[in-house]
Amino acid sequence: MVSSEAQSADLYDVIGLGFGPANLAAAGALLEQPRETCPISVNKSLFIERHHEFKWHPGMLLPGTRMQISFLKDLATLRSPQSPITFVAYLHSQNRLVEFINRNCMTPTRKEYSDYLAHVARYVQGQGIKVAYGENVIAIEEGGEGTVLVHSIVLTTGETIIRHAKNLIISPGGSPRVPRCIQSISPHPRIIHSSAYLSSVEPMLDTMKTITRPLKIAVVGAGQSAVEVLLDLQSRLTSMGKSTSQAHNLHLIIRGGSLKSSDGGPFSNQVYNPEFVDVMYDLPSDSRRRVMADYEGTNYGVVNPITLDSLFNVIYDQRVDGDIAGRKKNALAATDAHITIVTYSNLASAEISTHPSQTSTETDTHAHTFSVLLQNTLTQDFYEATYDAIVCATGYERNSWLSLLKSSSVGKHFGLCATSDNTRLSVERDFRATVNGKNGAFKAATNGINGHSRTSVTGINGEKTHAQYTSTETKDSDTIYISRSHRLLPLPTASHGLIPKIYLQGCAEETHGITETLLSVVGIRAGEVVEDLCSNY
Fold first, then answer.
1. Handedness of CA 423, 429, 432, 435 (dihedral sign)
2. How many CB atoms lie under 10 A from the CB of residue 103?
3. pLDDT digit string (tens) for 122-134?
4. Which CATH topology does 180-259+302-394 take?
5. Cβ count within 10 A of residue 240
6. Coil, helix or strand at residue 40
7. What CATH fold (topology level) applies to the domain 5-176+397-535?
8. pTM (two decimals)
9. Which residues contact 299 (CB under 8 A, 6 or more apart)?
């Protein structure tokens, strides 16, 4: 820990870890509680955010890209239509409500939605909610008398600040997931994740401007972000012009046989209704997994039909250009960057090499290429490919909260062990059954006997990879329990009055269903968390 350390004398009623849409909605819901009866003081509420200002997926605010959900599924409308933090209230404040209606479209652009979220962030701060920007939470510890100590580091100075809190709302968002074989050669200026695409793509292309041969860039992923990045790169490379007599090349590497359209039908979308969370939470775990599998096509590893049509038209136009050039022997080849979808392919390994045509020294990163070993997922055959740059649109990991709790003295009160390999989330019904069980059932469950785990990796638009459910009989594992209102349940062995209340947002897909990491019920969920927090204070 950094030697420069400060300790706040303030004791906060609640501290939120993260200040993305989930905790922003919680801040708004807290403001709507009756001030005269609410036991949580707005002035003693704090949210800690690592960004230096409010940001929402800045790396993917590509021009013209639209949200995948209705504007009515904002931070508050489904919970409280009269709330001052609805999207309609934002439009009215900007004098754009009538013009938005004239668009005749239920989905705003991603740029506008980002501005809406930033507007709400400014509003709640103006109403007394405190936000500590530019700080990264590095540890939490027991603080005694039912409090927790939150350790954060100020990113600009390295100073460590310790704050006391009676309650926590953990909404960590996701951390970029990069394939393991790519991790071994990262960081590199020509390997980027879609989460940082907009800020990284121009510097990445700048490193290749001196290369005279055609460029070859790989985009890895089969979801919305992957296709959006592919189309944007195609436009950028086309603007750069062809190298010598050939156009630049873009490869989209996917595990399946084709890109799949998202299922946006009204019946399928009922899985995103707020009441469906109750259905999911009440199901046995095996049934819950079956439902998740049934509805994956609504969001995970799929692409909006409009975006798919745009991509198909680009590829079709390539075919037209090729046919014309082939028929007219003296016709120049098209200057548009050429897109190829590489199907049934999985990254097996990757290493840095130097392209044979380059004369630069091997230590010059401008001369680097990436030698990639791909495996055909049908035949299991291996083949090699060489790329000048790689963009990973491979989703996010959402288990940073686990690491935080496991490494603290707080986690043990909820059944977490620092040495466990797997953690399973379970519902309150199972908690009661375990507590009331006989013959050491509680001990067995908390130690994960016959347990299993699930790790979900989810992108901003639904790219997702599931780790297999595996037996943990030979591994250390643990089970923790979460209420319907997203509060972690302390073990019966814990002194409940001395344990702070800890809530999770965006982390409990295993128990609460497919909406958990998405925006669909963020306003409803925030209201449930705040209501439970106030009623159980």
1. negative
2. 11
3. 999 999 999 999 9
4. FAD/NAD(P)-binding domain (3.50.50)
5. 14
6. coil
7. FAD/NAD(P)-binding domain (3.50.50)
8. 0.88
9. 68, 262, 461, 462, 464, 514, 518
